[in-house]
Structures are given as structure tokens and as C-alpha cells.
Amino acid sequence: MKRKIFLLSILAIALVSCKKVAGPEGPAGKDGTNGLDANATCKQCHNATVVDEKSTEFKLSKHSYGTAAFEEAGSTGCAPCHESEGFKYVCKNNIPATFTLSGSSYVNNYAATSSTSYGEIGCFTCHSSLHTTYGYSDISPLTTTAAVPMTMWGGTKTINITQSGGKSNLCIKCHQPRPVTKSTDKNVIDYAALSSNPTAVLYDTTTGATNVLKPSYRTGIHYGSVGAIYAGIGGIEFSGSLSYSNSTHTTVASCQDCHTAAMTGKAGGHTFVAKGNFNGCNVSGCHSASPITATSTKFTTPRTNHKTLLNQLAAKLKQDGIEILNRNPDTETNLWAGLTTNNYDGYLNIYDPASNPDGETNNAGQFRNPSPGSSWTSAQTAYNLTLPKLKLTNAQMGAIINFQLCLREYSLGIHNTSYSEALLTNSIAVLP
């Protein structure tokens, strides 16, 4: 019993000796004014008229609700446009749009890395200096306003829209056409030869031609054609009755003037939607003296003419009476449904049950696919062999590219009426 009392006494002494003793209390701090001191810089942006408003608008933007960021995550080639970290990577490191020979084939240098090919598009994608000083000035420096080397042309052509401090270049960095590459060495095809030697055969398996390009359902410039059309650079410029010039938009307007104009319905602001919103058109110095509406002839006439030219070009792109261009009336999968009478989407009329599973029901997939997919069934492979082989001249390939450029810029020529009309008119004339 005495032993237990002794041990308890030792423990009590140890606890008392280990107890920390508080030092003297410091002087009281100065009281701030609620909402004006500690968070003053934050509230410059985080308020109802800046961040709150823009983030609400952004929810209506396809940059926000599109699924591409999830679908393309991990793809280093797609990341520069589809992934936030990938876009910032190519801008920060000034990644070139060139192609470099690696072994026996070329590699497109314009790519992100495996560690940056992820991330949804958001505020920090374009406003890369946010939360640097935590002040309003962090909004202004954009991720890039530099001139944009065109990936379609392997960097040999450059787009530079200088008005508004080059802000349009931020948009065009992604909204530009992708390269059409050879099936042999994977380098960019010779676009200049398409216009300088239009009658030459580009692809024909029945004649033993070189066939540097093996056409597929998706052959083409991808979707971002508007940058090239707006700048008036990069189309296949066949000689013809129209010279290649630009509309006033190219040197006076910026993308932001129309695509971030004051909101009307669900268009404008940070939705980046311009359809149905003419607020940006009718500002002082542009069309304010004679305001444009959806029924104005200055808006409807060029669009009607442009649609007619697209229809005429599509009608000439045939082989043995079969259309070379793909039809797709589905407004969910065809972003350009309604822009042409037959609802072309710019793809080729080549059988591909993997990429175009509804092709047969849409009167599509009527030409043989020269590269059957590994996922095809034996029945699909057998059916493909019953289809006629597609042949392409330089003129036809150039006309297909111009059709894609002028269809997929979406405005039916409003972005750059003069350049679009020249591309389409001269393409129509060069085809037999």
C-alpha cells in the first residue's frame, strides 16, 4: 500500500512539473472594419457584378458543359485545346506548331505532356494570373495574346489579329483548323500542290497512284475553322474569278466584340455565344448608324449566298453520281445541321461503322473504307468490300478542305464574307 502511494506521488509531481506556464498576454490588436479591410482585395472581383455574374454566364458556355475535357483527358495531342492544363502548358512553353522527323515518320510538336493533359476549361485557363496579387488587375493579363502559328500548316502560316490588344489570338489559339496529314510519313500534306496542280491524282488505288493520303470518314481539318476564316489565312486558294481579300471584320473587330457583348437571353457575356445577339454589332463605330437585326439584308443576304455556294460545291463533289460528302440530319450529332440543304457535316461519305454507326440509315458510308477497323465484325468487313472505291484529285481534296472551313466556321460567311465567298466560288469553278 505504501508502495502505491509513493508511485502516485511521483506521478503527480511529474504532471505538475510538465505543465506549461502561459506567458504574459500581448497587447490587443487593432479592430478592423468589417468588409473593408481583410477581404478588400477579394471583394474587388468576388462580387455580384464580376465573378458572380461571369461564372453564371459561363455555365451557359460549351466551354463549361461540354464533355470534351473528360473524353480527351490523357490525350497529349488533344490537350492543348481540350484540357486547361494542356492549354496553359503550350502557351507558357511556347510549344511550336511544327512537325519533326522522328525515325521514318513525322511527329506534331504541338502537344501537351502526360502530366498536363487534364483539366476542365475554367477561369484560370484564359486568365492565368488570377490570385497572383488578389486584386482586380489579375483579370487583365490573359494566358496569351501572341500571334498564333497555324497547326494546320505546320507553323508555316501565322494568324495575328492585333486589334483589342491581340485578345482574339487567345480564342484563335484553339479555334483553328488541325492539320491534314499523309498516311505515309505522317507529315502535313502539300496544300500548295492542291491549288497549283489541281488535276493531279491524290488518291486512287486502281491506278497505282502514290496515295500519300488515305481518306477516311473523318479526313479533314477537325472543327476549329473559324480562326482561319476570320483571319483570311489558310484556305486552299484556287485561282479563279474572285480574289482573296478580307471583310472589314478582320481588321476592325475582335472575337470579344461580338462573342462577349452585353447579354441578350442566353447569348453574350461569358457564354461566348453570339447567335441571336447583335449588341456587339451595333456599338458605336460599327453598325450603330444602321443597326443590324436578324432580318436585316446586311445579315441575311450574305448568309443566303453562302448557303447557296455550299450547296453548289457539295453538288460538284461527286464520283459516279455518289456524293463524296456525308449527310447527317441529326441536330444532336451534326452541329451544322440546317446550314446546307442536305445537312452535310463536312465528313466524307466513307463507310465506318465504328465512327459513324448511323451512317447507313443517313444515306452515308457509300464508299469503301481503305482501312477497315479492328473492331469491325466479319459482316461489316464483308459489306465494306462491296462498296465502290473512292478516287480523289488534288482539286477535290482542296475543295473538301474549303467546304469544311466554310461550313464549320458556323456563321454562314458573316465572320469574313469576302474570303469565304472566294474560297467557295473558286472551288466550284475548279471542279469539272
Task: Looking at this protein, list some descriptive labels.
432 residues, mainly alpha, two-stranded antiparallel sheet, 17 helices, 10 strands
Task: Set down the secondary structure blueprint.
Elements: H1 2-18, H2 40-45, H3 51-58, H4 62-65, H5 68-71, H6 79-82, H7 84-92, E1 99-102, E2 105-108, H8 123-126, E3 148-149, E4 158-159, H9 167-172, H10 191-196, E5 201-203, H11 226-231, H12 249-252, H13 255-259, H14 297-316, E6 318-319, E7 322-323, E8 325-327, E9 344-348, H15 378-385, E10 392-393, H16 394-408, H17 417-430
Antiparallel strand pairs: 1-2, 3-4, 5-10, 6-7, 8-9
Helix pairs in contact: 14-17, 16-17
Rg estimate, integer Å: 29 Å
**Sheet with the most strands: spatial strand order:** 1-2
Low-confidence stretches: 4-8, 13-17
Portion in strands = 5-15%
Please work out how many helical segments DSSP would assign: 17
Give the overall pLDDT as a whole number. 90
Structural class designation? mainly alpha
The major beta sheet can be summarized as: 2 strands, antiparallel
Helix content: 25-40%
Order of helical and strand elements: HHHHHHHEEHEEHHEHHHHEEEEHEHH
C-alpha geometry? globular
Distance between the termini: 116 Å
Number of strands: 10
